[in-house]
TrEMBL record:
Topology class, membrane: Multi-pass membrane protein
Domain Methylamine utilisation protein MauE: 1-136
GO biological process terms, semicolon-separated: methylamine metabolic process
GO cellular component labels: membrane
Name assigned to this protein: DoxX family membrane protein
Naturally occurring in which organism (per UniProt): Muriicola soli
Amino acid sequence: MKVIVTISRIFVGVLFIISGLIKLNDPVGFSFKLEEYFSPAVLDLPFFTPYALALAIFLVILEVVLGVLLLLGYQKKITLWSLMGMIVFFTFLTFYSAYFNKVTDCGCFGDAVKLTPWESFTKDVILLVLIIVLFLGQKFIKPIFKPKTSVSVLMVSLLACILFVNQVNNHLPSIDFRPYKIGASIPDGMTVPEGAPKAIFEYAWTFDKNGTETTIVTNGEYPTVDGEFIGVETEEIQKGYEPPIHDFTIEQNGVDRADEFLSEQNLVMVIAYDLAKSNFEVYPELKQVTDKALAKGYKVIGMSASNEQWSNKVIDEYSLDFPFYFTDETTLKTIVRSNPGVLVLEEGTIKYKVHYNDLDELPFAN
C-alpha cells in the first residue's frame, strides 16, 4: 500500500503542477475557457463572466500550490480535501461537457495538449481514483522537510507563480502553443496536405411510406424510395484532417480578403476581438505607432468581431488611418491574448506579435 500511495502522490502532485503551470503561462486563454463554461449554452452562470480572469488566475495558482503541498507532504489533510473538492468539481464539469457535447476542449492543459471531452473526463476519473487512494493511505504521506522548510518552499512557489502570472498577463504568454506563434505561416497553417484523411458521414433518411415511417442509412447518396421524404439526420462517424488554422478570414461586406492581405510584403494587423472591451487608454499610442508604420510603407488593417458602428466610432474618436475588417471572435482571441494586440506579417508569416504594453518593440515604433 505504501508503494501505491507514494506513486499516486508523485503522479498527482506532478500532474497538478504541470497542468497549473501550462495554464499559468496563458491565464487569459484559460479565462476564455471559463467564460465558455459560464455561458447560457453551458452552465448558464453569466454573473461569473466579469470575474473569469481573476478566477482563472486563482484556480491555476491553487492547482500549482496543491501539487507542491502534496509532494512536500505538508498540511496533508487540507491538501487532500482541497484536491478532492477540485477534482470532483472538474470531473462533474468534464462529464457535463462530454455528455451534452457543450465544450469541445476542456482547456485542462491549455493549448499545449488538446483533449476531447471524454478524454478529459477519463483523465479526471483516474485522478479521482488516485486521490481516493491517497485518502485511504494518508498515514503513509510523510513530510519530506521540517515545517519551516516546507513553508519556505511553499512561499517561494507562491511568489514565483504570482510574479510569473503578472508577467504573462501584462505582456504575452512566455511559450506560445497556438498556430499563430511568431514564425508561423498562416497560409501554410490553412493548407490541407495531399492525401489527408477526409471526414466520413452517415446519413439517416426518413420517409413516409404508406403511412409508416421508414429510415434508410447511407454514406451520402440519396436513396431511391417510393415514399414522401420527411427528413435526414447526419452523423460524422470518422473525423477528417483539420488544419491547425481553419477559421481565419478577413471579411468586408461579406467578401473574404484573407488571400489578398496575406500576400502583402509588409502587413500590420491591429487585433481587437471586441472593441467594446478594448483598452482605449493605449489607442493614442497605437495611433502614433500605426501612423509610423504607414509612413514606412506598411499596409495597416484592423481586425475585430465588433460591428461597423463600433469600428467607425473607434476610427473617428482616435483618428485612426486604417479600416477594420471582420474576423470571428474566437479566432482573434486565439491569435493574440491582448485587446488590442498587434501583429506584423511578411507574406503571411508572423514576424512580430506584441501586447499593447509592448508597442515600442515593433520595428517601426521608433
